[in-house]
Amino acid sequence: MLQQIKRLGTDTAIYGIGTIAGRFLNFILVPFYTNVLLPAEYGIVAYLYSLIAFTNILYWYGMEAAYFRFATDTGPPDAAGAGGTGTVTPSGTFFSTPFISMIGTSLLFSLSLFAFRGMISSWIGVPPEKDVLIAYTAGILFLDAVVVIPFAFLRLARMAKMFAWVKFLGILTNVLLNIVLLLKYRTGVEGIFISGLIASAVTLLMLLPVIAGEFRPRFDGKMLRAMLRFCLPTVPAGLALMALQVVDRPILRALTDDATVGIYQANYRLGIFMMIAVSVYDYAWRPFFFSQASKPDAQKMFARVMTYVVLALSVVFFVFTFFLPDLIRLQIGGHHFIHPKYWEGLGIVPVVMMGYLFLGISTNLSAGIYIRKKTRYLPMINMTGAAANVALNFLLIPEFGIAGAAWATLLAYVSMTVVLYFVVDRVYPVEYEKDRLWKIFDVAALILVAYHFLPLESAWALPAKLLLFLLYPLALYSLGVFRVGEIAAVKALFRPRGN
Predict the structure, then answer these.
(1) Which helix H or strand E contains 331, and what residues bound it?
(2) pTM for this predicted structure
(3) Does the N terminus or the C terminus of the chain have fewer Cβ atoms within 10 A?
(4) Each residue's pLDDT tens digit, 319-367
(5) What is the DSSP letter of 337?
(6) Any bridge partners for residue 332, and if so which?
């Protein structure tokens, strides 16, 4: 079992290096935007990109998941798969049909957005003189949809290094263009969208060798219909999940103003470190659980992975909850990392990261839904979280402002996770290591309570936070969360050969 988990960890590390490097570059844009844009301008960017996130779901219509499912069902095992890993190498047939489908639909959608950009900008509350942003958005959505299947191929074929490099270079292009266009040419908000459009085009160019190698001039209508039967039920679920993640921005904008949305967005983005951890895990987890599902010990393995994931995410949570505020307030060259006009939102960062932690738990739980092909449950599960998020945002924002929006999102993630657990327990029951998981949560809660009562403005704050951080693993070890035999086995996996 540990060999398979090591493989998941290796893939996660490779995806992680590329994603962390890329997201860190992208994260640089947060302090950059806070120092060159007014909160109201940043609020407009956050609002439009939240709408793009929704629209992406319609452009992709779950085809990535269908590609994974059908390619692993029918693709021939590669050399590693013959040795028992269950990895598959998808053939060109399974690549070309969904790829052609996505090109056709995304082109139709984007041409429609471009043709009706004036009406759309008026409908969503964008000033008429800014309707060019809708045109840029149409291009970004088209290009991002075209690369979905090529990226899925890289993941399924375990070409993690190439996946990571392409992602990294695309983000690097976006960051550099933002800096040049906003600082040198003073393009403002428009420059952000031009940067995104060019970066998406560069990403597609880098994936052309993959497309040329896998594409075949054939289209299987029967296969597409089967794929659509699998993936279309996931679209409402995807929309609901996206609502769970970004619906707070449009609601916050409706109840407050663009400046408040800008402050919220800047601080919400500081939770990127937890989001990165969950994202890189998801990149490796989905192809991993598909390839391991037929193994006799698969459910036991998935339970062990859940324990490790919760433990790892809790460590990430404490690192950035304890020490990120100190970094934010640093002043270098006369500039703060985050401009002081955005500091009033720092209190939402731990809440945001806790929400991502529950998203990581949901990511692990969702394996059973896909393995049993019970995707019809996903809309109900995700809509539960989305409905809770919408209701709680309208309830909490008028009273608590941006803190209310953050807590609404966290509580929505928790509700979705609880519903998902009970559904999966019926269709694909897994005996999770509940004793270890409860110990992790209990100790984490005690550490958080202690942190809450620290005098954070005193000279002893940093040593006290370091002490609390060290107490966390020590307390878990004393409670038996770390098992001696398990630690020895993990060490053996990574011990150099010959030792």
Answers:
(1) strand 331-332
(2) 0.81
(3) C
(4) 999 999 888 887 777 778 888 999 999 999 999 999 999 999 999 999 9
(5) S
(6) 335
